[in-house]
Fold these 4 entries.
Entry 1:
Amino acid sequence: MRRDNKLMARFRDRCGAAAKGLRQMAWVAAVWSMATATLCPAYGVEEKERRGPATVVDRPPTGEHNDHYVGNRAPLRPDALLKLPVGSIRPRGWLRKQLRLQADGFHGHLGEISGFLRKEGNSWLDPQGRGDHGWEESPYWLKGYLNCAYALGDEKMIAEAKVWIEGALGSRKPDGWFGPDKGRKGIESDVAGRDDLWPNMIVLCCLQDYHSATGDKRVIELMTRYFKYLHGVPEDKYLLGWWPKMRGGDNLYSIYWLYNRTGDKWLLELAEKNHRRTARWDEDIIYDWHNVNISQCFGEGATWWLQSHDPKDLQSAYRSWEKVRDSYGQVPGGMFGGDEGCRKGYDDPRQAIESCGIVEKMRSDETLIAITGDLLWADGCEDAAYNMLPAALTADFTGVRYLTAPNQVVSDRQNHNPGINNVGAKFDMNPWSHRCCQHNCGQGWPYFAEHLWYATPDNGLAAVFYNDCTVTAKVADGKTVTIDQTTHYPFDEKVTLTIQAGAAAKFPLYLRVPGWCERPAVAINGKPVTVEAEPRQFIVITRQWDNGDKLELTLPTKVRFRVWEKNHHSVSVDRGPLTYSLKIGENYVRFGGSDRWPATEIYPTTPWNYGLILDGEKPEDSRVKVHQRDWPADDMPWTHTGTPLQLEMQARTIPQWTLDRYGLCAVLQDSPVKSDEKEETIMLIPMGAARLRISSFPVIVVGEVAHEWSKP
């Protein structure tokens, strides 16, 4: 035992201590940096380092005001970044392919599948708000459908979305209420005869995006009258019920959205009441451990900080998310083991997250990026977007899964409770089931596409997420420019930006340096630009941009190992923003649904119980071969056959690691692990391309004393 302890200590020290230290330093630096920025809005400018024509900043200067896009009005704190109007960004490449698959897949045709979207009797479409169904499902679906329609420029979809928008706009009541009449009675929830504000919060998001795309003034009128009604609701009758109380931060964001467009001071009074009545996500405890509530609500304090100006409110978002990840998120993929709700002792990589939880975490990150300008949140959003979201859906978008885990070796319709904290079929790919996730998963890719670029306070543009796309926006003195971005990121480290402008325009262009990237390189029109940027900084180039100017950005990638000390010293393998999983053969078996929209289970056809063979002295020197293949002609990199990047490593099976009595891969045990099996070559593919996967691996150190794996 003593020798085992020494081995564990050496393995931990050499593989994991540095990673842990860097992770803790990143959180501390992020909180300290934002606290400093609270006291000095120009902090990002004062701390920049000048290296030739490029400037490096931690975040854009909040002391300036964008002349072209709506930002925060005083006394709200100024924006660090501003969301561009819906339709400003046109994705291409693999992201557009995902949007097209979504539109043509089950989500774009959910009206044919889901009884919750049946128009007849739907209270969201009745002028009086009457009907026999209509709660969160229709708004959830519209949230993704509307934005997908505008991202694609699909007029047929836009027309269908407008049917539901007109239903909401036409439901206004004389007192200011809108939506289903039964929402005033809490029939679908525990509000018990009082206003259920939760589904209306979702529709407000849809209306804001619709206004962003069209400028329809009726949205401002409806929201003004509705919030006036809420302003008059006595405090003890406001935000009643579990879901409204948990998710009041969504309402707060909408209140500020309207205030920034009207300047009505009473909205700030409503915001104060809204914050007082919302669950205390801004305190040292996690108010509720329901996985979607965490993903959706942990940043409420940062939103309130815009009005309170108290650094503690801002820091609550950092503190809460760090606590969640530290307690249940010592796993790859950027999420945490929530299943339905987190449980003490259930933190293995086999614990899962709802599809709702994935997309809501992405949206929280996209919002926090704008509020703080901190690229920590951009890294988190990419982690969830690339490593978790694709795997939660079938590649052809014919089905969605309720729960997805980093280690998930079967995707069936069996009941895995109590191993999983939910009863019933939660692993099957099914377009006909999984109620909330079935409707809500559609916001993930459209919202991501809308946030590839942001406007900056100094009338510039910021490339935050790299993807094949074009962005058209106003800059500098009101000139309109289009930037064409060409890249296969995150599978490639090269990004090319081409400026298209009718006349020369001088403006700052911000380029994100991801947290995993060291020594990025920039060239303009073929000439290298001297720049020394650290991870999670912006490279800023302010110059007169002429039509046809071309900027080339290189973000060097390398294979890295992450050691999860709190999860038995298991290891995950990263390259750039992608984490890699074991390539497990997948057998799809239909058990229901229809020919067009089948409900399927997925079973493994190859072994999955591997431990990675790593060099105990220098894990980074372990044998890893990177296999690069041609880009898929169908723009489908999130599949076994389409992924352009695979990693080859050496491994051994662990025979005692099997399915347990709950039908789940048995929980991890301490590494390093003993295995006398023969050494094999295995292939790793991106997590997002693996619907069955092992992403947190046990470690086998050849020639060392190691732990015997016990049967479950």
Entry 2:
Amino acid sequence: MIITKENTPRWLIFLIDITIVVSSVVLAYLLRFNFAIPPSELDPLPLILLYMVLIRSGSFLVARSYASIIRYTSTGDALRVFATILSGSLLFAITNLITFFIIGGFFFIPFSIIIIEFLAVSFGMISFRLLVKLAFLEFLHPEREKVNVVIYGAGEAGISAKRTLDRDAGTKYTVLAFLDDNPNKQGKKLEGVDILSPEKLDHLLELKSIAQIILAIMHFDIIKKQELVAKCLAYNTKVLTVPPMIRWINGELSFNQIRNIKIEELLEREEIKLDEQRISRELSGKVILITGASGSIGSEIVRLVSRYSPRKLILVDQAETPLHLLSLEAAEFHPEPSIEFILCDICNEQRMRRIFETFPPDIIYHAAAYKHVPMMENNPAEAVLTNIKGTTVVADLALEFGVRKFIMVSTDKAVNPTNVMGASKRIAEIYTQALNSKNRTRYITTRFGNVLNSSGSVIPLFRSQIEKGGPVTITHPEVTRFFMTIPEACQLVLEAGAIGEGGEIFIFDMGKPVKIRELAYNMIRLSGLTPEKEIPIKYTGLRPGEKLFEELLNIEENSLPTHHPLIMIAKVREYSLDEVTREIQQLIQMAPGKSNFDIVKKMKGIVPEYKSQNSVFQQLD
């Protein structure tokens, strides 16, 4: 048959199937009678053949077994063909029973012929379809175009990955080997492919041109994954991953679901163990207010808190579209809590008071803030109004309405601040800590570094720049940052909020600092491209107020451990509430009308350790 990209006509497939049936009946008789059919069996053969062809034709027409596109034959198609053939053979058997018990005590078709014909037709029709599929795929993807693939994991996900490649990608890919840690599987074959020890990977990478490695393990050790990816990137081998089985479409893995591994998966750490019972006691049945609810951190806090069956969630944000999108997503929360979506600026004291009067909260998670360092460096008045005044408004109302706990989300940039944003968050920390002395509401601060994929993270920016072909812009070759995934950060916020007694600044173990240059290089390599060659790198210089290195503790601070290995308490000096309130109110009053220099000068007076870097405000130091 000439292989073309055109679909084979259905009538032709039908005729081929009928030809297979006729050939199978003749073959069945020849095998049954050892290639010497006696005259007594030969005489009724034309009638039997006609009857069997009619039954088979009818079953093919009803089941439309000829209507599938042959070159895309799948396991499901083969099973449907098998079921169609089986139904026809059952009709033959029923016909025999009718002729034996009702008509005249004889079998119209010998049962041996029915069995042999069933096997021959099944083999012939399924083999025909598979041969056409293989021939077509070979025509589309000749040997010179094939790429080598290794699948890590010889379990259910690994088998599904191979079958998906065979089904959807065809002979474009050659699976060279499975890798598996289980010694009982090593040395065996799976669907004709060798199962090797992961220790053989170096040998494969050196001797074979491996284009891709597919990670088909649902729970891969983080350290091992990082080492494996680093090894593959050194050989320009792309690393792909199979999603969890619960995300497979109708229980079947799709080729499009096998995706490139993301940089976030290499920066994450082992799953955080939370005190679920303690958090549940803290949140279950409570009214919880979350500010900045539609932001990167706020929305994840919403998702986490909703799992602990709060009585009501009060979600406040001034960003209309993100809040609307969160309201659409909330319909999928389970169990579905009672939620109020409130569009409001936290600086609007009258509106916020009305919210507290209508929905008196038990617990507040304060995540609303301006976070972009360069923007706040150019607009210090807005940093004061949102990050400081907004915090004082919510914190004061929490005290007035007897809120049990107020948990503020802060930043590592509040430590020895070098920019307006960090200084504004430090002043907010100072105020809430001082307010804790009232002993009515417990004020707790959580402090951590950059979160992956947040609105201010470099990762979405780098990803966009890589997709556009570069250049990828980095401020400085040596700049480093701490990173944490959004779920990690928010889980620790909930844990710290649950254990906090008031007045603490909880700091999170952010792991090792990451050099942004290496982060960009790895993202480029994970995209299958080469840094500096296919994707240029451009150094733009440190932005106003930006540090080369971030800190999590003030040099005058030390930390104490908690029951959780990733959470520590920063010991900081205490401030007089009266003095702090007076200084902050003066700063807030200055914000609308005073110059940027006057505002920043006042901020430096409140936070003596605030020393500007790479900024016009350095002259104030």
Entry 3:
Amino acid sequence: MAAKIPETQNPDRTPILDLKALAAIEQEQEPVIELVDIASENHDHEPFVDMEDNASATHPQSRSVALMKVLRTNAPELQFLIRCILPLFAAIYFSIYVQDPLLIPLPAIFALLAVFLLLHIYLHFMARRHGFRRRFIVAANQVDIAAAHLAWLCDPMEPTAMVLMVLIAVLGNGIQHGISTFRYLLFLTAFFAPIVITVRYLAVGITLTSYLYFFLGAFLLLYVYVLMRRIDARQSQTDKRNTDLELDNFKLKQVGIALQKSEARYRNIFENSSAAMVLIEENMQISLINSKFEELTGYTKSDVYNKKRLTDFIFKDDLERIKRYHLKRKIKGGMTPTEYECKLVDNQQKIKHVIIRFNVVPWHERIMATIVDITSRKQARDALERSNQKLRQAASLLTASERRYRGLFENTGTATILVEKNMKISMVNSQFLELIGYGRDEIVGKKRLNEFIERSNLFRIKRFHAKQKAKGLPLPNEYECLMVDKKKNLKHVVMKSYTPPGQSSSIVSFFDITSRKEAEKALQEAHEKLRLISVIDELTQVANRRQFNERLYREWNRLRRDGLPLAMIMCDVDCFKPYNDNYGHQNGDRCLRAIADAIRKTVKRSVDLVARYGWEEFAVIMPNADAQGAFCVAEAIRLAIEQLEIPNRESTVGPVITLSLGVSSMIPTTTQHPDTLIKNADKALYEAKRQGRNRTIMGKTERTGKIKQIIRWDSTKPLAR
């Protein structure tokens, strides 16, 4: 609780200082450092070393780690050299041995060993290039195991000496790359070894000595595997203990560093505070001051420390007044304030008006006093009072002017608002409230103009402003946009803004044109429907003859300029008149709609146009399509219609509805007419009907537009796409 007491108040009501009450005030103290945050910042209670992947170094003081470093020497160059020597050793072994290798001739053995050697060279090169990634190491291990088992399989000697290469490959790679790699190599060996033993048994037989070698080798592998697992377990335990010790040590170091930083930070805050600060003991003895207190009082630190009390600097009359007030508050049992306004006497016996605020420091039972110099504020208060009198007189004049302005603003006849420079709305009239559905208290001083403008329209206006500013052009004061009312309804408005000269606020008016926009939209939709009716066939919902002619002439002229081909497919429903007579006109209409929908789905490109050319005739315009491509599409259309399986008992072609199609493609020229393309496609269609229907005929044309040749395609054969 704080109370500021001016000098002119009644002495009986002035606050007095109660040090015991101040010391009893509980204040929250933030912790200097959070150990949990330090522990979780960069460290976990997991070991630093991943023994499964053997990818990181271990603690240097661990003996188990030192042992594993000896066993798993990180020498890729030496390992690569050993891998290259082993195939050479196998080649020398097979070359000096008298008998031929098993299953594979000696040249093939040399070729395979050369392949293994080249694979090792390639994998070593890729590993060095990409930083010895795991996939290259695994591949090299697999090559080693494959080469060792191949040498064992082909060794004609019994007992075989090449079984040592399997042991070398498994033990060497396992010890080098860790327990997970060792486990993987043991799995591969357990899979391939029975196969090799079985093949060798069938080829040369197996002696008792060989069985002994096999059992000794298996025992050696399992023994080394168990030994490595125990070493890894010991190493994991040691690493965890070392990690815990390091983490505890790190915590202690961080605590010490944090305490040092905290002390330096608080000392820096105390010394560089903008207010005079004093640390006093319970008996009001001053034990610490900052430089601002020295400037305020004119005393040095040596003059003050353990020599002066804070009460020695307070003006005598103010000190007595504070004591009297303190005595009354103590009798009544009221709370003691922690803030006092009084006069301070400096070293030159000058009076300064100050505010003293007391704050108890809980952990060492000291009191922190903050002294703020308000002498200039006191001097400015009288000047402010005089200026306030003048402002009251001016305010009365402005009030009368404001009434007239508000009446004019409210009765403008349009929705009008007053917008400040930060787009905050400071005044609205009733027409604007009716337009958006908000209350006056919900808008004035709380809403901005851009909150009522639809987002895309707001971005459009901002982009336009940026372009105008970049070009150095003036900004318009009228915009047509969408507004969002309280119920999230969109309204079309014309927004006009006006900024009076020398003013920072703008007057913005809104004219509702929603009804006009709705009428324009309805008229536009009606025009669009009329346009669609004029270019879309009502029955089949594909392009009609009019749109077909317009598109044909447009594509003809465009492709003539580009020198690209234009193709056309003419389609005719086989035996449709008997179908219509037998099944009725309604079924005939449904059949035509199904055929049109199938043709539209088969024609994939968006630039192609499917049109109804006649009663049962359809046409497809295909820009930039050659004869072969158009023929493939036509044959796909024919198969799609046939797969509809619309029954037609009156057809002379088959039991279902089928199509006959004619295809034509040519490069438009200035000497030709688009009708030439139609005639060629129509002739090809006639030829398809003449040959028995349900087929596609393609006619190739010269630049003159005359039919050069008609190619008859067998519809029963699959298409070559």
Entry 4:
Amino acid sequence: MAIQFLELYSWIRRRKIFATLLVVVTLGIGIVIGTVISGRAMATHDQGANGASLLAIPDPVTLSNGFATISKKLGPAVVNISTTQIIEKPKGSKKPHGSGDPSFQDFFDRFFDTPDTGQDAEKSLGSGVIVNKNGFILTNDHVIDQATKIQVAIDGDPNHYNARVVGIDKDTDIAVIKIDASHDLPVAKLGNSDGVQVGDWVLAFGSPFGLNSTVTAGIISAKDRSMNGDRQFQRFIQTDAAINPGNSGGPLVNMAGEVIGINTAIYTGGRGFEGVGFAMPSNAVIGVYNQLITNGKVTRGSIGITFQEERSNNPVLLKELGAPYGIVVEAVEPNSPSDKAGLQPGDVITEINGQPIHTGADLVNPIAQTAIGQSVQIRFVHALQAKNVTLTVADRSKIFPQTAQTEEDQPGEEQTPGELGLHVEELTPDLAHRVGVGKLTGVIVSEVEPASFAEDIGFARGFVIIEINHTPINSLADYRREMAKLKPGQDVLFKVAPPRASNDRVLTVFLAGVVPAAQ
């Protein structure tokens, strides 16, 4: 038994020694391999030019993605708006010739007996934000003001949509336009602008200088900011998020991804960004939008007074008039609710519906939002005595008709509109020779209306129309017959020959587009 135990002990000891040797050998091999690899890696780093170590691409690091998340979510609802305005050219200017050869300009003026006055198209860019899946878009009035044509481009969508104006409100510089698409559109969510605080992060979306889908970041710099004392309904959110020309009409967005303002203006010594931008608060925008889509216009209440808030902030003035605070009445409109109640210039309005008045907005907003015919309670100081009066709110546009928004008819000369903006004449052999199109037959374009479909697809004066939708055009009758076949929404292809200085080579150009609906 003792012998067996000694043999077992000897066997276990030999196994321990073998295991230990195995571990030592393994570690040794690992050290050798590591040294070789390290040496090779060092050799690799030493292979850079002039002994410099090569740079390696590090693993990606996830930074704060709050801005990126908001941009991806809201970006598709922000649109680019391009407008065309027809303007009368001054006497002595040349008729526009589009993309045609300017060397033919005088010839066309003489041949077609066109005057040296006419119309031209002025184009501008802005932004907007879709707030309804059916295509209702918020923007600025000054973006679409007097526009003959409004086109909307959505990022990632190859289509350009023609928009119509639903309504405008010049008092807030807000407009609503609508496009028709064959599918539901991405929509931005509007937030409550009363919840924003100075110092909050915000993002500004838009197309500054025509650069689509641009996003800039900043903070709320101030609230309830007025840029023009005469504009009672323009109280802005101020931001240092970069806003530049072309941003107008785009949204200002909080960190919840909600639109809390419509970018409207910048304060700058030049044309560019200087850290001071202004957006109309969303709460004001929502009220305007709801009235425009319901009634096509905005109706506001008034009690018939005017004032200057800057002068009302003078503590000496208020003290002399016997009021601790308030708005000083500077004028009272005849036969207005205030006139009938006995208010006079120099009175100080201190409360409305029991709420103290410290700013012009404190006075204007409750009255403007009160339904016409409803009453408000006014407390004011007259001749150092406090008085209370109940006033019936009236329609502001009737009290101040000189500032009401009116649409004036401006009839001009009667003109025969061209088909899709084209005016054509029969192409005679002599005229074909003069414009360098050889023996081609067809009709020649005598005029292209500004901002028309024809101008959009590239027509210019002097172009000879050879085919329409693959059908040869040999005469004016052929042209009229083929044009009469075209329907809104149909594809149309024109084969044309531009005018050239010689008959050596006739250039063939194809112009195509979708026939627009009648405006």
